[in-house]
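Archive transcription. Copying these from loose printouts into the bound notebook so they stop getting lost. Printout 1 of 2:
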Amino acid sequence: MKLTCNRQELSSAVTNVQRAVSTKASMPVLEGVLIAAENNSITFTGYNLEIAMMTTVEANVIEDGSIVLPARLFGDIVRRLPEDTVIIETDEKLVTYIHSGLADYQIMGIDSKEFPELPQIDESEKIVFNSGLLKDMIRQTIYAVSVDDSKPVHKGTMFDIEDNTLKLISVDGFRLAMRIEPIEDARDTKFIVPAKALSEVLKIITDEEKTIDILVGRRHTVFKVENYSIVSRLLEGTFLDYKNTIPKTVGTEVTLNTRLITDSVERMSLLNTEKIMSPVNCYVADGQVKLTCSTSVGKANDVLNANVTGNIPLRIGFNNRYLLDALKNTNTDEIKMQFNGPLTPMKIVPTEGNSFIFLVVPMRLRDDN
């Protein structure tokens, strides 16, 4: 293999692909990036057996070939090369020579035949969606993904396509986040994508006006955005029956300015630390929501004017971080907070439409029966 390419394009590709490479693996080849050169382009692939990332950059390929190079070392070298033009060539002994200006490196590679084969998915199973909209949907739901290993299926986000509607649902036992958007796809399917893979999709999407192709197989999915492909295994297991989890009735409804309630909860949160955690108390009365927080550090109080309907008064408490995560991901000027008592999950929805539903499970307050 012998080629010349632009250092900046090379560095960007290797930096991104490197995130899908294992740092400590039983197979040395999994700690490397696969470089394949042909037809005046180079394809870079990183794969840790759970997530793979591939991208292609233009190059002047003098001799076709492929090699696996240590990802971290290769990335560090490329980022520090002195000139814009990089020459890469390998010999029959798997030694790779890297030249740029007066700088030269020789590093040992691994035969590309040892690199594991990536899953193949039929292009006919493709879902086409606006990349910017999908980015927003992932960002607004990924915060509620579980980090608990006892329920691995909840360490991902469910994609539920039904009746020309795409729903993304994340749960962790304390909260639920769901985003809903119409989609021109008549299929009826569900699949669960690990949060790690979705985090990489978020990082790759740059142009919000483009489309993203989602290929869905039995055990894997591929996200194709711009010149990148992210391959991920799908999570298997019984996901929460979210339709029966979301409260269908409303006992008390409060309409609030999103920024004002978010700022107020943040003020209450100043008294909480990792070691000192106390709920933010919400007291809903006629035309007002009173927030209080009391810890060994001190006490805080705040009052917000609100449009309140239904059963009052109501006193309910929340973990400040869980409540803030939901509020900060609403992306609307006003929200509705819907309650069915002090021990039932609170539902946050937009004042118009149904683009999201966020649930937050309350904390039991000391004087609750």
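Printout 2 of 2:
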Amino acid sequence: MSEEFYRMKRLPPYVIAEVNAMRAAARAAGEDIIDLGMGNPDLPPPAHVIEKLAEVARDPKAHGYSASKGIPGLRRAQANYYGRRFGVDLDPDSEVVVTLGSKEGLANLAQAITAPGDVVLAPNPSYPIHTFGFIIAGATIRSVPTTPDEAYFESLERAVKYTVPKPSVLVMGYPSNPTAEVVDLAFYERVVAFAKEHGLWVLSDLAYSELYYDGVPTPSILQVKGAKDVAIEFTSMSKTYSMAGWRIGFAVGNKTLIAALTRVKSYLDYGAFTPIQAAAVAALNGPQDIVEANRELYRKRRDVLVDSFAKAGWDIPSPRASMFAWAPLPPALAHMGSLEFSKQLLTHAGVAVAAGVGYGEKGEGFVRIAMVENEQRLRQAARNIRKYFQSLGMNSAGMKDD
């Protein structure tokens, strides 16, 4: 009996799991670890959302199987959100499906539309499901940059010109996880035009749509005229409403892709627990002050992180969106590589970050820092890091003194 399973052979060891295991062991030993590794929100959902969950859960009729596609009220609520936020009209019946989180939705769509040997264009570095969802489904990945500049479109041109078979899918995610890069509507216009010219489906991951700073809202690709001809977009309740563990997300857009995802989901799940879906309706249709409050809180954390870490000797670019900072390794420690640096930071400073190489080989030389601890803890992390750097003979510029 073979133990060499086809899909397991296509998956490398999960690099991020190494640091996660070290963090868990340290905490089990009683160490105080400041966890800036996993993007796990530390904030609660709005009180009225929790109350709605409890209210519906008390109904004896609410505990049977739910609807895999999502209850009608939730699909309408998401369509209304797109209308308010982006000015995009969506048909709740044919252009919206509820997913068990955006990660699971992307993976399910990969299963629905991918044949072994298909070529998929995906960003590098990238959130792992953007590549491995398709690898599990049997596809071959051709990497494109995350940086939304001319080099991005030059990379797309080379890919469609020289790749055999021709790529069929383009995956993107902005604001980017892990790099926190953002794009404007003009970028999406070029992407849609390129996709139509070359027969590509476009999968847009917009999970961080509401965590933007400096007063510039993030756009949706569906705002582009004709985008629904080629594009589907994934969003999530996880970060906007601090509902990560509830596993509620959405796919919206192209009817063909929505139908394919809906059909595959019908074989794989019965949908989220109905009280959770009802509570998600309350979140989308109810008071939206939580959205602005969370955005402001993460902005303050961003500023504290960038300022305090700079004083510790680690200059980090200020992210314009998302809940992450994409930090180059300090020059004096760049030789370690991102995984070893992450291990050393955990061991000697009690601070957990995510090694950039876990997001693709182009992530080497960086770590991802999640802003999921309060301002006091971020300052404590900076003090711990400063002591660690000083123990190595590093100065305030992140270099070793001669």
